[in-house]
Amino acid sequence: MIGKSTCPLAILLCTLAAPLLPAQTTRPPLAPVIKGIPRDSALRLPVTVQPSHPLPPPVAPHLPIRTPGIAFHDVARASGTIFSGTVTRIERRPANQSQTLTTVAITFHVEGAIRGAREGEDFTILQWAGLWSSGQRYRLGERVLLFLYPRSKLGLTSCVAGPMGRFELDAWGRVLLSAHHLSAFRTDPVLGGRSRLRFSDFALAVRQAGEEE
């Protein structure tokens, strides 16, 4: 009886007395070395998460901007003065007893006259200073073609429909159409699809617009 009971006890004692072997583990691979960043710091770099759905492409800046509800004949018919010229003087005029508003006087040397101005004269317009502050400005030496509203009782005027009544001129005196103009006037028989015109062709478009019923 004693011999049979000591065998299992001996086996248990041998098992407990055996040296413990360290568990075999898999060592993770070292993080890549990035220049200027310690190896352990690379593990804490932010991870870029890709969106599950692709983002829409940005709108191309050259696409024309739609300006509904206005046509070239609308701008031409609403104008009291139409001319092209160069800005020669800009003067801020404070309010006084005769003029209750602060204004800006802009003088042009008229190069091409279509309506309400004479070629070769110096033509001065009076604009409310608030429009100047909002971005409707001019600079000395700038060459433009303007469609201006008839003067108000205070003698003020501004471009018809804001930027739609203002065109830039190139070094050869040709009228340049912006993306706004191209979109709004695309159905005009003279202006449609043309980004620049000679002044004579532009004057023809104004006359045709005035003749339309």
Termini, distance in Å?
130 Å
How much of the sequence lies in strands comes to 15-25%
How many strands?
Answer: 7
Assembly status? single chain
User: Any idea what the CATH architecture of the domain at 72-211 is?
Assistant: Beta Barrel
Order of strands in the sheet with most strands: 3-2-1-4-5-6-7
Unreliable spans: 30-67
| Total helical segments | 5
- The first-level CATH class of the domain at 72-211 is given as Mainly Beta
Could you tell me the CATH topology label of the domain at 72-211. Answer: OB fold (Dihydrolipoamide Acetyltransferase, E2P)
Shape, principal axes of CA atoms: globular
Helix content: 10-25%
Structural class comes to: alpha+beta
